[in-house]
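May I ask you to review the protein record following this short note?
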Amino acid sequence: MTRAKDIMHEGAQWITRDETLTRAAQVMQMLDVGALPVSDDNGRMCGIITDRDIVVKCLAQGGNPDRATAGDLCEGTPRWIDANAEVEDVLHEMESHKIRRLPVIENKRLVGMISEADVARHLPDNQVAEFAGMIYSTAK
């Protein structure tokens, strides 16, 4: 059985909700990633922000990334998956919520992220095609 930890990208990091968007962008650049989980004051995940969020929800609206924080952009219920979850559960979580990146948690600690690229790299073509169809479909 393939598990979440088998297909995830290791070394994921998160930032705290009070970090500025400038700092978030710097961390993304340093890690060469496009998304970061965001933690609250208790060290629990409270959301995820993407490079696109920073551009569309801050910069394009005239916001100041040196003043706006990661917490300002967090919306909705954060989604994640246990490191030992089966890959079918990973796909279901991503497909049902139409998300392209999924934090992987083990023993209450962030241990990795699963992205579309990870799915494409590790799964058979038929699963990748079905996944892409579900993620990108506009039907609700």
